[in-house]
Specification:
Blueprint (H helix, E strand, L loop, with lengths): L23 E2 L11 E7 L7 H16 L3 E9 L12 E4 L3 H14 L3 E6 L11 H7 L5 E5 L8 H13 L2 E4 L2 H11 L6 E3 L12 H7 L7 E5 L8 H14 L4 E5 L4 H7 L2 H13 L5 E4 L5 H9 L3 E4 L10 H8 L3 E4 L3 H6 L6 E2 L5 H13 L1 H15 L4 H16 L16 H5 L7 E5 L2 E9 H13 L5 H18 E2 L4 E2 L2 E2 L12 H17 L3 H17 L6 H17 L4 H21 L16 H13 L3 H17 L28 H18 L2 H15 L20 E2 L2 E2 L5 H26 L18
Parallel strand pairs: 1-8, 2-3, 2-5, 3-4, 5-6, 6-7, 7-8, 9-10, 9-12, 10-11, 12-13, 13-14
Antiparallel strand pairs: 15-16, 16-19, 17-18, 20-21
Helix pairs in contact: 1-15, 2-3, 3-4, 7-9, 7-13, 11-14, 13-14, 17-18, 17-19, 17-27, 19-20, 19-21, 21-22, 21-23, 22-23, 22-24, 23-24, 23-25, 24-25, 25-26, 25-27, 26-27
GO molecular function: glycosyltransferase activity
InterPro entries: Glyco_trans_1 (IPR001296), Glyco_trans_4-like_N (IPR028098)
Keywords: Transferase
């Protein structure tokens, strides 16, 4: 394999000095046999003539040979100007076609890929510095393993921007040298837990067969030197040619074999002028007859045969920043003595007498090194044996084991979700986020972050939770309910007829009027409490404030705010079926949402708006509930059809829930996978509960439990977000895994989703067994709290 990169596409020679003890280096014997899944490999691929294409091919071939439990699909990056026949690939991605990357990402998501393994080099993707790769990774839902074939010590601004973006998306990052890992940690702050060094793989062939392969090439009894790769000025071949006269003086039969075609880009711009210049130099020095030119690109088997025929392999590269050379790995594994400049890969691989290093551009040093080995056959043989022994660490079985282990690491620990599906969460984490004012909004990890104070949104949701919980002593739950009700009451500004939302930790309001959505959510909590509050006094309070707040809501027309208020009106009518204000709110909400859906619907986008936001299923849920309450079958049908559409968007090819990512917000007709937030899973559970209540269609029970399992680890990153013991929940899923913070919104989303899925399971079981349920509508709280 060749590794042909320009000097500007290599990594720094500075070793940095960072502690490497916590960077994982995978070698043979460390692989896991638990890595079972589907892997989508993206990169250039054979028959394309480039080093990364060969690497991608090797990766796929060796995983298939040694880890057949992995199903591997190849998505090949292709150059439209160089059409080739690709065999055995799942898809071709034209490197300069922006839309092609989008289609490919969707195809990969639809394929059910468990892991996407992306090969990165700036020059193989379209756009400035290959920037089209950024849009591609943004659309990938599965964990991404990023193999970096180039890490620049001094990247340009655009290059730095692109690599930083890729690193932000990668679940795991593979590099082939310790120095590259150091650079990523030092320059980009990449966490050591995400960095894995897997040395370049190499073939496993018997030692000492050069005489056999020399005879095949007609080179018996001749000392053979060799350099391989796409020819270009960065190879330093002129240095070896300049050393040949001194070598030939000592060893007249020596032959220097220069194997490989000229780089296609160089041919396109300058023809064969570089090769011709080297030939002219050899003629001038009188060593033209000591050089054998093999002017073509060799496939791997033939390359290995050619390598076996040499005694000394030379890599005279003047660029000392090169991090990877596949042929260097091959040569070492085949037991060849190597004479090389001290570029990064050579320094790491050839240490301990495995090879001999010389300063770039020094033909005298090349001649001395080569003659020193050829003059002393015992020294040459000893170096070859050391190289062969070193190569046992990187032979293909070991490389494949390390690669499979990395896939397994991305897949994460598979845990049994079924046994925990209906287990009740504790309340310790919830109570830990509360003080005598209310529920604190954010947390750093599990520690409440007082700097952001409180918000009405969370305290309104917390009030709903108190209406439902059976995990607290009654007296304690009553105290918390009164506290949250007090927060909601204090947030209301009678002069405006509206609520404020954000309160600083010093109990001062940070705004004069809260968002439309926070006002809608407050009305929702009040409607819920009006019929399900823990005490009659609390229900009486909620009815009064609901009526006041509903009057001030008349000029708010934000779709989500209207949906929230509509759900509040449903709750209000459960306790007072002829409440005029709640009925009018249902009429307004149903008509508005139905109209939005009719206006925005198109064949591939059955939604209320041209964009997706947060709490998406609430729009459908409100329309379903309004349709049922007011006997409007067309509203009910629209609510159900739109909910099924959003359910389809939020179900992966593997069948797990995939919450619409926050990066989709404000992106017309786009569904992006990250960041995924607990609020969306809760909304999916509760909207499915409304749909099941209306239809008894078991699809909705299945979707609700699928969405709830997202909290427990059935998600794109196989990460458990919810801790049943404490009742805490992480703030969501990023491309790299779980967001470690456990804020109020996330804790409440998990807790409320639990009660919804338990209530739904109770009714579903009763319906399946033919049991008559006194109230045909789904219970919205534990049976012990029915009033």
């Amino acid at each position: 394999m060749s590794d042909d990169r320009s000097p500007n596409e290599s990594i720094s020679a500075d070793h940095g000095g960072a502690d490497r003890s916590d960077v994982i280096t995978l070698f043979p014997g460390q692989a896991s046999d638990q890595a079972i899944g589907r892997v989508a490999v993206v990169g250039t691929y054979v028959p394309r003539k480039c080093g990364i294409a060969t690497f991608t091919s090797d990766l796929v071939e060796q995983l298939g040979r040694y880890h057949g439990e992995l199903e591997v699909d190849v998505h090949a990056l292709v150059d439209a100007n160089d059409p080739l026949e690709y065999d055995g690939v799942a898809r071709e991605i034209v490197q300069d076609d922006a839309e092609g990357y989008r289609r490919a990402a969707q195809a990969i998501n639809d394929s059910g890929a468990d892991v996407v393994w992306l090969q990165h080099e700036y020059g193989i993707f379209g756009g400035e510095c290959g920037e089209m790769v950024c849009d591609f990774v943004d659309r990938i839902a599965a964990p991404i393993i990023l193999t970096l074939h180039t890490v620049l010590a001094e990247p340009g601004d655009k290059q730095r921007e692109i690599l930083a973006h890729l690193l932000s998306r990668a679940a795991q990052v593979m590099v082939m040298s310790e120095h590259s890992a150091d650079l990523l940690a030092r320059l980009y702050g990449t966490g050591r837990e995400r960095l894995t060094v897997i040395p370049h793989g190499a073939p496993d062939r018997p030692f000492g067969r050069q005489d056999q392969f020399k005879a095949h090439l007609g080179l018996s009894d001749r000392p053979v030197l060799m350099t391989f790769g796409l020819l270009g000025p960065g190879k330093g071949i002129e240095t070896v040619i300049e050393a040949l006269p001194a070598i030939a003086d000592h060893h007249p039969d020596v032959v220097y074999r220069i194997v490989g075609a000229t780089h296609p880009n160089l041919v396109a711009e300058h023809g064969e002028s570089y090769r011709e210049g080297l030939q002219d130099l050899a003629a001038q020095l009188g060593v033209a007859d000591r050089i054998e030119w093999v002017d073509r690109f060799l496939d791997t088997p033939e390359l290995l045969d050619q390598l076996e025929a040499c005694d000394i392999y030379l890599t005279p590269y003047p660029n000392l920043q090169q991090s990877t050379s596949g042929t260097l790995s091959y040569a070492v594994a085949l037991g060849k003595a190597v004479v090389s400049t001290p570029y990064i890969h050579a320094r790491e691989l050839l240490s301990g007498g495995v090879g001999q290093l010389f300063e770039p551009g020094s033909s005298q040093a090349v001649a001395e090194a080569v003659n020193g080995l050829l003059d002393r056959p015992e020294a040459l043989l000893a170096m070859q044996r050391r190289a062969y022994e070193k190569g046992r660490e990187t032979i293909w079985p070991r490389f494949a084991d390390a690669a499979a282990s990395l896939v397994d690491k991305c897949l994460g620990e598979q845990r049994s979700v079924a046994s925990r599906l209906f287990a009740a969460p504790g309340m310790g984490g919830f109570m830990g986020m509360c003080d005598d004012v209310g529920m604190i909004q954010h947390a750093i990890g599990t520690v409440p972050d007082r700097s952001h104070g409180y918000c009405l949104d969370d305290n309104a949701r917390a009030l709903i939770l108190m209406n439902m919980t059976d995990r607290m002593e009654a007296r304690e739950a009553d105290r918390f309910a009164a506290m949250f009700a007090s927060f909601v009451q204090h947030a209301f500004d009678p002069s405006q007829g509206k609520f404020r939302n954000f309160m600083a930790y010093d109990r001062t309001w940070s705004e004069t009027c809260g968002s439309d959505d926070s006002n809608g959510r407050a009305i929702w909590a009040l409607g819920h409490t009006a019929s399900r509050g823990r005490t009659e006094d609390l229900r009486w309070w909620a009815r009064g404030l609901f009526d006041q707040a509903l009057a001030g809501f008349a000029d708010i027309d934000s779709p989500r705010a209207v949906a929230f208020a509509t759900l509040g009106a449903v709750g209000r009518l459960e306790g007072e079926k002829d409440h005029a204000g709640a009925t009018a709110m249902l009429q307004r909400g149903g008509a508005m949402l139905h109209g939005l859906l009719e206006d925005s619907r198109r064949p591939d986008w059955a939604w209320f708006e041209c964009v997706l936001g947060y709490d998406n299923p609430r729009l459908s849920q409100a329309l379903i509930e309004a349709g049922r309450a007011l006997d409007r079958p067309e509203w009910l049908a629209s609510g159900l059809s739109s909910l099924r559409w959003i359910a389809e968007q939020q179900t992966s090819a593997q069948g797990n829930f995939r919450a619409v990512g926050s990066e989709s917000f404000h992106q017309p007709h786009e569904v992006l996978p990250f960041d995924q937030q607990p609020l969306e899973a809760q909304a999916a559970v509760e909207a499915a509960m409304s749909a099941f209540d209306a239809t008894q269609d078991r699809f909705w029970y299945g979707h609700a439990t699928t969405a709830y399992r997202w909290f427990l680890g059935d998600n794109d990153r196989r990460v458990v977000l919810a801790d049943l013991a404490s009742g805490r929940c992480r703030d969501g899923i990023t491309p790299r895994g779980a967001n470690r913070n456990c804020g109020a919104e996330s804790i409440l989303a998990f807790q409320l989703a639990h009660y919804a899925v338990v209530a739904l399971a109770h009714v579903q079981r009763a319906e399946s067994s033919g049991e008559v349920i006194e109230n045909q509508r789904l219970p919205r709280q534990p049976a012990t709290h029915f009033r």
